[in-house]
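ok trying this again, last paste got cut off
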Amino acid sequence: MNLEFKEITPDNIAEMMPYYTMRKNRTCDSVFLESFIWKEFYHVRYAVWEERALLWLMEEKGTYFSAMPLCREEDLPEAFKAIENYFNKVLGCPLTIHLADEYAVEYLKLPEENYVVQEQADARDYLYLGEALRKLPGKKLHKKKNRLNAFLREYEGRYEYRRLCCSDKDDVWKFLDRWRIQKGEDVEEHLDYEVRGIHDILRNCSDLAIRMGGIYIDDKLEAFSVGSFNPVENMAVIHIEKADPEIPGLYQAINQMFLIHEFPDAEWVNREDDLGIEGLRRAKMSYQPADFARKYLVAQKTEGRK
């Protein structure tokens, strides 16, 4: 199996990008930036297989796993078999795929005698209608709209939404330093990797297909968001959204303004998963998701290996 796995760097973005738009996929992993942000946390490496697919190799605590290949739908069975053969014959272990998208799982129809296929409930992405988040209509979103309007009244003349670019990286870094100090020492390990990923984005943002925006209050950045676009699904993916929690209504403001200014025509908005964190789950449910992008564990059974 002649697969050359490489680290994700700005130099190979052009090689990777075309594979992200080859088939339907409503998960946050359907856009390049998600792989870029978490490349250190999961030791993400990729290989191009026959110029038909991106195959993935990841590692956590000494255990190898993969993600579903990125390719055309009709190439999925062969691409899946290619990464399975690599795991079996080169790594000497059964194939495990985390966060497999629902479309791929349904298309492959893997035989249950050879594979465990199980939904990863805590990993499902929250999907919202773009117009609902931009306008906050109806009774169910009334509290969100009230908080937003209270912020607009309280800070009228003092706040400004700005589209962010590479030259604004110092403002974002200063904000992140303050935000990280607020979080204290007792935080999930992934948050530090997320901060490092954001720093990496800002160092390379001119090479990345991303959109960034922030809210300044009294000329100081107090909230910002980073997103990217999935053209196959007409879907905005919100990777990062951070705000000073001490300012009431600020999260509602950055949520709405970012979409209005950067994704005015996106039909769908993917706000990623809740990591199984109850507070995050309540916050995401409070925005009344229209659907979920479900993801699955695919694990090759030992007795099913050839």
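PB: full thing came through this time. The mean pLDDT is 93.
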